[in-house]
# Entry
Amino acid sequence: MSALVIVAHGSHLNPDSSTPTYDHADTIRAVGAFDEVRTGFWKEEPSFREVLRTVDSDEVYVVPLFVSEGYFTEQVIPRELRLREWDPEAWESDGTSATDVTLTAEDTGQTIHYCGPVGTHDSMTDVIVRRAESVTGDPDVGDGFGLCVVGHGTKRNENSAKAIEYHARRVEEMDRFDEVRALFMDEDPEIDDVTDYFEAEDVVVVPLFIADGFHTQEDIPEDMGLTDDYRTGWETPATVDGHRIWYAGAVGTEPLMADVVLERAADAGADVGNAVETVRERTRQTGSPAD
# Structure
C-alpha cells in the first residue's frame, strides 16, 4: 500500500485557507492514484505531528503545499514528521531545485518519500498560465497581454523571490505573452507600481500564493489600486492608469494544482498510472472564468 499526504500551513483565522488543500486531495483521491490520500496542517487538524498516524500504508509520499523552500519545508515539516537523519543538503537544491529524499519516520517506522514544495516544480508554470486562462475565460490568452507573477518576497528568505522569478522566466520563455514581470509585496520591484512595468493595455496578475487570504484579497488589490477598500470588492478586469488589470487571486486555488502534487509524488517514484493526464483533462473541463 502507498499513501499520499499533502501538508499545508492552514490557519486559525481564515476558514478558507485549507479549502484548496482539501479540494486538491479530493481531485487526486477521485483518480485512484493512491490507496490513501490524507491532509495535514501546521495551524489546523490533523497536525503535521499527528498526520502520519492517520495513515495505514507503510510507504508514504509527503508533498508540501508551499510556494518556496525555506523554514517550513526544511525545518518545521521534517521535525514534526520526525524524519530520521533529515538534512536539507540531501535535496542538493539551489533554492528552486529540491526534488525528494527517502527517509524513515522515527515513531511510526514508515518509509517517507519527502518531496520538494509544489511552488518550485516546473509544472507550476503551467498552473500560472492556466490561471490566466481561467480569469480571462480565454484558453488562448497571451497575444496583446502582459502577465505579472506576484510573490510575497522577504529578506528573511531569499528563496521566496527565487521561486517567483524562476516561473516568470519560464513563462517568458514560452513567448506566449507580450510581457512578463515578477513583482513583490515586500521588496522591489513592488506590485504597487504594476502599471509602470507594462506597456500592454491588458495585464493578467497571478499571485503565487497557495490560498486566498489577507494578502491576496486585501493587500494586493488595494496596493494595485483595484479598489480603495477591499470590502467593497473590485471589477475583473479593473481599469488602473489606462490598463485593464485581470486579477486572478491565489494560484493555489486553480484546480490544475492537483497535477503538480501528483507530479511531485511521481518524481519521487510513486506509480500514479495515467493520473497526471486524467487530472489535467478533468481540471480543464471543470475550470471556469473568475467573476
Notes: Residues 53 and 100 are 21 Å apart (CA to CA).
